[in-house]
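quick one: tetrahydrodeoxyuridine bound model?
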Amino acid sequence: MSDLDALFEAARAIQARAYAPYSRFKVGAALATPDGRIFSGCNVENAAYPVGTCAEAGAISAMIAAGGDRIATIVVMGEGAHLVTPCGGCRQRIREFAAPDTIIHVAGPDGIRRSFTLEELLPHSFGPDNLIDR
Ligand code: THU
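yep, here:
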């Protein structure tokens, strides 16, 4: 199995664990660190709707908890026919730990549908470098 296949399978496996009783829209995200470790997360909704968290946030949290701090590649998997690109907030979350040329694969259960660079999804972004030389 290729590295990308492994990432895809991790995203699919965790998507099934999503807690999404309100939107009924399950999302899974799996990221690989430069040393090849995979971390995944799913969306976790809440009866107080705004408190729910996205799949990407869960994957990043798992990475940080394990001592990782860089995203080499990420797969985001949604449901349905539409492309489930990361929401705006999650683009910024990914940006914190990624580079402009980091690939974000957008998948459905059928496979990877499109691949973007972070720069394409979040051009002219604000990040840690912007806080240097204050
Ligand atoms: N969702 C994610 O988990 N990631 C995204 O990038 C887009 C949206 C979740 C949040 C909510 O639980 C559901 O999808 C519907 O918006």
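The two ends are 46 Å apart (CA to CA).
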